[in-house]
Specification:
The chain has 14 helices and 20 strands. By secondary structure, the protein is of the alpha/beta class. Bound molecules: nicotinamide-adenine-dinucleotide (NAD).
Length: 477
């Protein structure tokens, strides 16, 4: 069981919601109950909306310099509490403790970066047509934000939204994931303890559709930020458009990885195996479609498969585990169905393909070859520990195939040929391209997709601009 109760946070106070409805929160490694999470009622959401309006009025008047100081204190508290926050994260989400610590420390870096960058929300002066006129562009906070963050990175996905909003001078109501509520609570406690004024950050839980359908139309909310699946993103974006709200949509991906014939296959396979099976593959930028040059295909796939076979899958709290369980039973059903479909159509599992045991949501690291084009996994995001291996010979044909899906989030390429690196960087139709290393998702670099993977960014100066609105002031003195 959790050590503390699962409270919502509204107007600077920790409280139990009033709907009378709740859900159990389970440990995905043991199936043991960790706690009970109450759901917000409409009255609680009205309270959160009034609180966010009040918080915005206060916070926008705090100078960017002072806001930065308070946010740096949040980052310090997170670093001091890394073990405590990471432990509840692993208990409720499943990822191995070392990864949970990286997530918490990385989130502290996100908050610290936004603390600095908020001080650089520069506007500009435009040359005037008449003497004595000053044409100024002032960057203002967009207003109270409604943020919806998912369960695969319960702390860092919330950090990107809260960090960007607060650095810009906005308040936020964030609905964090119901299946992993305690780590966002421990994270939001850092804002409370660092002295963020009441109403600036509000944290609620409940039935996701009920909350989004109530908050998005509210005239108090001026901006929506959602991270999650493509179908839900399309629905929320339509709702945002209907109410003329700005939106950032960080949706799913189906990342292609191009492995050319001039690389050291063993070291590339080792790096990619780490990337693939991190967080049991439940990562929107997880490499999934491996296009491997025919000259190195057998060697690469052999090494990658050996690495997958060697992973110890187990409870994330056990220091010897390399990969934890899937976060919830829905993912087991989804993996079984998508892999079975591929196998029925002719795919071969070089390793894995099955659930492990019947307690906890453990699934084997899986490598599929000979997957036909009509298998669902070729077009649907698997969001789990499965890699699809394909041979290629002709680069242009392969690039056309890599770009053929409606997704466009992350892409990866491995080659020693500089011309080829430049060619694929230009050709890959995705919001992020990383060549010869895993170089995406840093606080200071833009993170976001194109096509069905969404629009807008959550990192870099773009991630701050997402919460700013340009106001033009023309002044004649
Ligand atoms: P889902 O589509 O039901 O939910 C995805 C996320 O959206 C969850 O966090 C959920 O709480 C939230 N959500 C669902 N309906 C909502 C609504 N009407 N309003 C507001 N929020 C809503 O699927 P799931 O089973 O939770 O997750 C599986 C799929 O979600 C995966 O296949 C993956 O594509 C996607 N996903 C993506 C990310 C990401 O980082 N982009 C994270 C988690 C899940």
């Amino acid at each position: 069981m959790y050590a503390t109760s699962l409270d919502h946070y509204i107007d600077g106070k920790w409280m139990q919601p009033t709907s009378g409805k709740s859900q159990d929160v389970m440990n995905p490694s043991t199936n043991a109950k960790l706690g009970k999470l109450g759901h917000a009622s409409k009255a609680d959401l009205d309270h959160a909306l009034a609180s966010a309006a009040k918080g915005f009025a206060v916070w926008r008047k705090v100078s960017a310099f002072e806001r930065g100081k308070i946010l740096k204190k949040v980052a310090e508290l997170m670093r001091a509490r890394v073990n405590e926050i990471a432990t509840v994260l692993t208990l409720e989400q499943g990822k191995v403790l070392a990864e949970a610590k990286v997530e918490v420390l990385g989130s502290a870096d996100i908050i610290e970066w936004f603390a600095e960058e908020g001080r650089r929300a520069y506007g500009r002066i435009i040359p005037a047509r008449a003497d004595g006129v000053r044409n100024m562009v002032l960057m203002e906070p967009v207003g109270p934000v409604a943020g919806f963050s998912p369960w695969n990175f319960p702390v860092s996905q919330a950090a990107r939204k809260i960090g960007g909003a607060l650095a810009a001078g906005c308040s936020i109501i964030v609905k964090c994931p119901e299946e992993t509520p305690a780590s966002p609570i421990a994270f939001v406690k850092c804002f409370h303890d660092a002295g963020v004024p009441p109403g600036v950050v509000n944290l609620v839980y409940g039935v996701p559709a009920e909350i989004s359908e109530y908050l998005i139309p509210s005239p108090i909310i001026r901006k929506i930020s959602f991270t999650g699946s493509v179908p839900v993103g399309k629905h929320l974006n339509a709702l945002a458009a209907m109410h003329m709200k700005r939106a950032t949509m960080e949706l799913g991906g189906h990342a292609p990885v191009l492995v050319f014939d001039d690389v050291e296959t063993d070291s590339v396979a080792t790096l990619l195996s780490g990337m693939k099976f991190r967080n049991a593959g439940q990562v929107c930028v997880s490499p999934t479609r491996f296009f491997v040059h025919e000259k190195v295909y057998d060697k690469f796939v052999g090494k990658f498969t050996d690495l997958a076979k060697g992973l110890k899958v187990g409870d994330g709290m056990d220091a010897s585990s390399n990969m934890g369980p899937l976060a919830n039973p829905r993912r087991i059903a989804a993996m079984e169905s998508i892999i079975q479909d591929a196998q029925e159509k002719g795919a071969k599992a070089q390793t894995g393909g099955k659930r492990i045991g019947n307690q906890g949501n453990f699934f084997e690291p899986t490598v599929l070859t000979d997957v036909p084009a009509n298998a669902r996994i070729m077009t649907e995001e698997p969001f789990g520990p499965v890699a699809v291996m394909m041979r290629f010979k002709d680069t242009d044909k392969m690039l056309a195939e890599a770009n053929s899906l409606p997704f466009g989030l992350a892409s990866y390429a491995f080659t020693k040929d500089g011309k080829m690196a430049a060619k694929v960087a230009d050709a890959l139709d995705s919001g992020m391209v990383s060549i010869n290393h895993f170089g995406i998702a840093l606080p200071e670099t833009p993170f976001g997709g194109v096509k069905d993977s969404g629009f807008g960014h959550e990192g870099g100066v773009e991630g701050l601009n997402a919460y700013l609105s340009a106001k033009f002031v023309s002044y004649m003195g």
